[in-house]
Amino acid sequence: MRGTPINVGYDPVPLSEALVSEFTISDQEVFQALENLGLATEEKLVWLLDFSLVFSTTHPEVNLKGLEGLKFDPEFYKRYLSRKEEKNIDHRSSEEGFDDRKIGRSRLTADKIPEGLMDFARSLSILGLSVIALESSRYMFVNGEYNHFVSLLMATRELFTSWKLSQKGIADKKRVAKANALRRHVETYQLRDEVIEYWKANISLTLSNEKAANLLVSRFPLSHRKLNQYIAEAKRKGTSC
Q1: Alpha carbons 124 and 166: distance in angstroms, whole number
Q2: pTM of the predicted protein model
Q3: Sign of CA pseudo-dihedral 107, 43, 188, 198
Q4: Which residues, at least 6 apart from 213, have a Cβ–Cβ distance to it below 8 Å?
Q5: pLDDT by residue (tens digit) across 187-204?
Q6: Could you give the 3-state DSSP secondary structure of residue 71?
Q7: Which of 14, 99, 126, 214 has its CA 20 to 30 A from that of 67?
Q8: How far is the CA of 96 from the CAs of 68, 99, 171, in angstroms?
Q9: At what angle do helices 12-37 and 115-142 cross, to 10 degrees?
Q10: pLDDT of res. 108
Q11: What values do phi and psi take at 114, rounded to 5?
């Protein structure tokens, strides 16, 4: 049974001031966390947001509730979220949620993350999502979409609180070390995937590993030996399929 509706009167001025104040606090806290992890530079923030999006779309335990139909400032989207080859991409993501085929630069599966880093990877992806929610809420506020602004600000707080709770009792140095180790690990696999994709698309698969590596060595920042190894592994996987 539903009770009698209650009409709550309020002054919109202090309410709006409180919301803006909450946004400012969130902005400061989130980016201080990035500073503490050494992830506040543009290059590293691009990596974090990409990692967070791809991890969240491949690990269903990361809750994306409240992050549907995001919109971003076009410059922010182009700078931090769109793939390098996308020049004229729309600044809005799918109305149904994240689409890693449009946004993510990498394809991240659980077997690419060591077991000892998996919990931290999950937590770090949540921190990255809090940045994404925060930036989308900024765009919503500037463009007068206040309902979305409030819901995204609440999502930001929920995500960031989850990050803080997961890191309780962990020393700053240990967090930084884990963030660096995870980034190196993921980037290694990402570069390997890029090598294999380029090899399959541009080099005859019948060419010897040695000769194929000769053609790849000027394109990728890897040794001839490592390129040879990646090609050999890819050929073995192709044979076993």
Answers
A1: 10
A2: 0.73
A3: positive
A4: 224, 225, 227, 228, 231
A5: 888 888 889 988 998 998
A6: strand
A7: 14
A8: 6, 8, 38
A9: 150
A10: 53
A11: -60, 145
